[in-house]
Amino acid sequence: MKGFNILICEGNTPEEGKIFQDVGIATHTESLKESLAYYNKNLRIDVLNPCLELNLNEVIPKLKKYDGLIWGGSSLNIYNDTPEIRRQISFMKECFKSVKKILAICWGMQVAVTAAGGEVKKGVNGSHIGIANNIELTNEGLNNPLYKDKSNKFNTPAFNFDEVVTTPTEAIHLASNKINKIQGLNFKSGVSEIWGLQYHPEITYKKMINIIKFRKDALIKKRNRFKDEEEINNHINFIEEEIKISKKDSRMLELRNWLNIIN
């Protein structure tokens, strides 16, 4: 596979990224780089954090050089009106003017959908903590190049509390499960074609378990997702059973297929 110019946008704030690093958890950008290198070691990757104050006069003219953009995950909630979130939405709109192929993962999809006129809200059917079960491809998903060779029903790493409730105009619904109706989406905005995923093919289950352990107090006391530590440990055991049967090539097929799309 030949080399491409890829821009990775880190969805987390620098402060959150440092928290991850301080406890030995790879940032989402580091996970993306490692997973992409599994398929193509010739990628020329630049990293940008749109949470920061950006000199857009310098950044925007350079966007056209990228063959593709990947926008990763975050612990932010898109409906909170903060400067960091506003900057991300604004920058995504600029990317729509210049970058032809975009892979928007979890938070990245929520930013892209919002920038393109859709809406994201807190999930009403629960959340995914480390894993999403029984994601099923729609008829359109079965025929979309992003899901080439993918099983029509699968489990995958995921971590989200929010969901897309209104899709951009003429968006194609690719995948769904009982927690989030929109697990996969394909739409266009400006010059961009965007593939959005509500889950994380680039993150390992082991990293998800580390995040759960790190966030266990918040998951119990703040999120009210688990009643106690025993329930968290049972959930971790469930994910560890999935690790035994999960195959790396199957888990990350969306990354391979997206790289083939921009080839």
Overview of this structure, please?
By secondary structure, this protein is of the alpha/beta class. It has a single domain, classed as Class I glutamine amidotransferase (GATase) domain (Rossmann fold), CATH 3.40.50. The strands form three sheets. It has a nine-stranded mixed beta sheet, sandwiched between helices. Strands 5-10 form a two-stranded antiparallel ribbon. It has a two-stranded antiparallel sheet with strand order 6-9.
Care to give the gist of this entry?
By secondary structure, the chain is an alpha/beta fold. Helices cover 37% and strands 22% of the residues.
> What's the architecture, going by CATH?
3-Layer(aba) Sandwich
Query: What is the helix tally?
Result: 11
The name CATH uses for the topology is Rossmann fold
Which superfamily, in CATH terms, is the homologous superfamily? Class I glutamine amidotransferase (GATase) domain
Low-confidence runs (pLDDT<50, min 5 residues)?
none
Strand content: 15-25%
**What is the end-to-end distance?**
8 Å
Q: In what order do the strands lie side by side in the largest sheet?
A: 2-1-3-4-13-12-11-7-8
CATH class: Alpha Beta
Tell the overall outline. globular
Share of helix among residues? 25-40%
Largest sheet: 9 strands, mixed
Give the averaged pLDDT, no decimals: 96
Give the total of beta strands. 13
| Total number of distinct structural domains | 1
Q: Rounded to an integer, what's the Rg over CA atoms?
A: 17 Å
Order of helices and strands: EHHEHEHEHEEEHEEEEEEHHHHH
Structural class: alpha/beta
